[in-house]
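TA notes, week 10

Several of you asked for a full example with nothing omitted. So below is the full record: structure tokens for the whole chain, then the designed sequence directly under it. When grading your own attempts, check the secondary structure regions first.
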């Protein structure tokens, strides 16, 4: 373990996308399905608005900025050719008043067969010159008798752009007032879309963040409940830091995925799909030219994913190794300084730190290559569009507005692909955390509740061990065929050397563990038949190492159970002999005692633990006597409390003080997991066996 620094678990790395794990996460999302559907609807609306912006720009350019019309010489065409033109254009073909000419807008030329357009241009039947449509109210500005000015059937006139551009600016604005009105309308629509999109984006982000926080809250609660339900054997093998990581860091990784990935992933999918559809609609031939780059882009993305996964795994392992080394050395700093090994530890840390640096640089190099290559593909796509699309614009196969829209859509298309690098790292980390969370939630190591619970009435407090054997690890027994009985109201002391099995007896009575062989009975009922809550109410435990929660004295006595009234609390305080020190506190029972009871002395914490154990007036009391030294006054209070507590209760004491041992009705002497002797103090001393040696050792 020292060589590996305990980082093996962190080497585990899930797939960046694991369907099995995603299904488990979906269970947490299911209760919020209606809200999620609202968010998806908002996402689709936002996507539609984002996709509409370049298309509105196309309309503005083709229909209002250029607004160019081309003349078709109908007089020189045969009827079949005229029909070939009129067929695809329909109402978009404007005929002159004399019927000898017709005009088609720049926007609609692309509807004609490109071969026909070239044929007409070559024959001089389709003009290269652009015309501006002058509305009827300004038609008299240009006489229809002028050369190259044509009257249309609706009263408007077609005038060469060169004539219009030669006019004064204010006159040009009048002539092109309709185009300016169209541009104003599109500008207002764009502004409205941006404002609406802002509102929708706010709603989408807020809803998805809310869902993410709700899901994280549910996962944390499930994890905490799972931790509380585990048997103590689970905590024997799992460090506290690792469990805290599950509830904090791993859940935060999931939250980061929801905030940074899940919020945008659906939008990215809609955007990419929408762009592909719009490009095919605008010009499917040019779209296919752009799509030719997709296999290279997807291939590069897959290669990046593979390399990034390998680099991420290595970096994660190195970071975990670094963290474990730091935690171990800082925790053991007393030993480091005692044996003056600072220089050795510095060199060891420098080596691990360098490994972390190398792994980090490997990942950076992969990302440093991926982003510029994606930019290179984007630049190549733009160049391809300008070259191929520009030729189509010149040949009237594509409008200028469509080319501009293509360029905008291509840049939009590459944006989510470029972001994949950052999202990949987040997904990788989140999936690894999800795998560990799911593995923990699926882990089963709980003390089971009985199928048919039994609670004898009344509870007398008759304890009995019948041929009990138990071990924390397989093949290493701690208790071996232990049999004893504690009658109602009897006080029994358990003594023995360290490792004899005294604490294990307590653990089995409290049902922190179940025996591997034999039975533990309370009032002739196997503890496995008792509901856990009822068992804990009827068996009070005072541990040697008192743990106090932050909060008030009352909080630490009731531990969140409001079913116990103030009378029960007052009774417990009195029996525990804790009233004298509580009355000295400024706020009494509501006094904040700090983290782990830091504002209380060791003796006061011991008295508080007595009150906690007595709050439910248990019939069985288990007391693991504290060995720490306290002042004489507190020692007196503790001894008086023990005398009061043990009256009319079945009491089992893991005794360290000779005074407590002498008061016991019976003494059980444990040695290497077995009960070697039992009797009173005088009887056991007379045997001159294990108990006798223990006492002589204490006296020495």
């Amino acid at each position: 373990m020292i060589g590996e620094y305990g980082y093996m678990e962190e080497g585990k790395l899930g797939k960046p996308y694991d369907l099995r794990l995603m299904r488990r996460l979906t269970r947490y999302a299911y209760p919020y399905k209606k809200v999620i559907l609202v968010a998806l609807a908002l996402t689709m609306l936002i996507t539609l608005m984002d996709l509409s912006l370049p298309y509105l720009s196309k309309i503005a350019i083709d229909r209002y900025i250029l607004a160019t019309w081309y003349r078709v010489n109908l007089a020189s065409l045969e009827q079949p050719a005229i029909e070939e033109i009129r067929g695809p254009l329909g109402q978009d073909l404007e005929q002159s008043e004399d019927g000898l000419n017709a005009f088609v807008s720049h926007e609609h030329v692309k509807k004609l067969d490109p071969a026909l357009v070239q044929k007409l241009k070559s024959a001089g039947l389709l003009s290269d010159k652009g015309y501006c449509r002058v509305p009827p109210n300004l038609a008299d500005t240009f006489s229809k008798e002028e050369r190259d000015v044509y009257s249309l059937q609706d009263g408007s006139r077609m005038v060469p752009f060169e004539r219009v551009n030669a006019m004064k600016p204010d006159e040009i604005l009048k002539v092109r007032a309709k185009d300016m009105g169209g541009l104003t309308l599109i500008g207002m629509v764009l502004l409205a879309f941006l404002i609406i999109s802002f509102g929708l984006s706010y709603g989408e982000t807020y809803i998805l963040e809310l869902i993410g926080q709700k899901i994280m809250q549910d996962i944390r609660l499930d994890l905490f409940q799972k931790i509380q339900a585990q048997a103590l054997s689970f905590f024997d093998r799992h460090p506290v830091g690792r469990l805290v990581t599950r509830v904090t860091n791993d859940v935060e990784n999931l939250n980061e995925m929801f905030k940074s990935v899940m919020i945008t992933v659906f939008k990215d999918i809609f955007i990419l799909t929408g762009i592909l559809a719009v490009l095919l609609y605008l010009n499917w031939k040019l779209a296919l030219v752009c799509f030719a780059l997709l296999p290279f882009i997807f291939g590069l993305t897959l290669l990046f994913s593979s390399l990034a996964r390998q680099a991420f795994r290595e970096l994660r392992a190195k970071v975990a190794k670094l963290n474990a080394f730091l935690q171990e050395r800082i925790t053991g700093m007393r030993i480091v300084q005692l044996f003056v090994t600072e220089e050795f530890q510095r060199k060891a840390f420098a080596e691990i730190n360098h490994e972390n640096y190398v792994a980090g640089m490997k990942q950076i190099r992969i990302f440093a290559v991926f982003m510029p290559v994606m930019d290179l593909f984007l630049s190549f796509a733009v160049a391809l569009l300008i070259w191929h699309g520009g030729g189509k614009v010149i040949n009237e196969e594509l409008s200028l507005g469509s080319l501009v829209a293509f360029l905008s859509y291509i840049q939009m298309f590459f944006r989510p692909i470029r972001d994949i690098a950052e999202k990949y790292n987040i997904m990788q980390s989140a999936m690894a955390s999800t795998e560990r969370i799911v593995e923990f939630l699926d882990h089963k190591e709980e003390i089971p509740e009985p199928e048919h619970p039994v609670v004898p009435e009344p509870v007398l407090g008759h304890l009995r061990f019948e041929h009990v054997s138990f071990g924390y690890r397989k093949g290493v027994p701690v208790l071996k065929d232990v049999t004893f009985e504690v009658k109602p109201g009897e006080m029994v002391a358990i003594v023995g050397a360290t490792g004899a099995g005294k604490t294990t007896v307590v653990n089995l009575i409290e049902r922190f563990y179940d025996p591997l062989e034999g039975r533990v009975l309370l009032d002739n009922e196997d503890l496995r038949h008792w509901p856990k809550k009822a068992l804990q109410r009827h068996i009070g435990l005072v541990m040697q190492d008192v743990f106090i929660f932050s909060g008030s004295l009352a909080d630490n006595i009731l531990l969140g159970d409001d079913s116990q009234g103030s009378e029960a609390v007052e009774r417990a305080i009195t029996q525990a002999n804790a009233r004298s020190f509580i009355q000295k506190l400024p706020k009494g029972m509501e006094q904040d005692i700090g983290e782990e009871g830091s504002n209380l002395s060791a003796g006061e914490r011991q008295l508080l633990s007595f009150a906690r154990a007595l709050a439910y007036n248990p019939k069985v009391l288990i007391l693991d006597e504290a060995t720490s030294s306290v002042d004489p006054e507190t020692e007196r209070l503790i001894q008086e409390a023990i005398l009061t507590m043990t009256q009319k209760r079945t009491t089992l004491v893991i005794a360290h003080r000779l005074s407590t041992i002498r008061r016991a009705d019976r003494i059980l002497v444990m040695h290497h997991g077995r009960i070697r002797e039992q009797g009173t103090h005088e009887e056991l001393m007379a045997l001159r066996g294990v108990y006798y040696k223990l006492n002589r050792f204490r006296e020495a």
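The chain has three domains: 8-28+229-442, 68-175, 463-699. Use that as a sanity check on your answer.
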